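Deliverable D5.2: sample structural annotation.
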Amino acid sequence: MELDKIEEKDLQMGNANLIVFSETLQELADTDRDIVAVTSDSRGSGKLVPFGQKFPKQIVEIGIAEQNLVGVAAGLASAGKKAFAVSPGCFLSARALEQIKNDVAYSDNPVTLVGISSGVSYGALGSTHHSIHDFAVLRAINNLIVCAPADNFETEHAVRKAAELDKPVYLRFGKKNMPFLNPEDTSFEFGKGRVVRQGSDLTIIGTGETVYPAWQAAKLLEDRHGIKATVVSMHTIKPLDTELIGQLAANGNPIITVEEHMVNGGLGEACASFLLQNGFHNPFKIIGIPDEYTVTGSQVEIFNHYGISQQGIADQALKMLNI
């Protein structure tokens, strides 16, 4: 099935990425007793209740103490365990930032930090529960892979790769059910983006839960205007797939980046920095959450307000193409 011919009805909807994370972790733990989940009163929200029931000696409950969570996970990793530290992304990447920096990344302890309910997944709970800063702060720390899977395929393989690697990793998950965006692609590698729709008129680069609305926008553009957009799942924010970005920018066409993150310091600025420093002059636009007090509402309402939606992305594309 050609990528530019996939219809929305052909996309298979899967589970929430967190469910896939839990199921994959259970499968790995079946044959590897070094797999350990460490939670901060987040066993339920992290979908780890079945894991804890099946492997009661391979789960550690820290309570609402994110700094301790990361410190304990780092200690376990230093002793040879494969520790997955699970906590809401907003608190994990802020309250425990010093421990992530010093105990995990700088000490080179192979902890997988799992930020759950990330972005604006908590919706109406408001700004205190939004993790729209995590890409920015974690990109600034050496020796840390930063990854936001866009579908169940990417989630499963990201968890498997993280368990295999002897490196610190941050995995970012939201809450909603996700489609399988590219059934033809059976490869996954940290630092390598995935093309989930092919086009020739512009490029839309998304990450995490913004890739699906980017895909929907590309379909809308083709159906209504005959415009064909390439859509990329840039699941790894760091290291960034600059080789792919350079290839896509070579034709000079417009590039739009889309992220469930503040426009400062995230995917868009990472792409812009590479393009500008390497002589590219493509029309370029970052779609994300601006530097303002974030509106309160559901994830869908917040996405619609800031144009992180099928229509919002399509409108921006038409504007850049002067249509």
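Annotation notes: The longest strand covers residues 255-262. The CA atoms of residues 289 and 306 lie 6 Å apart.
The annotation will be released with the project's public dataset once the embargo ends.
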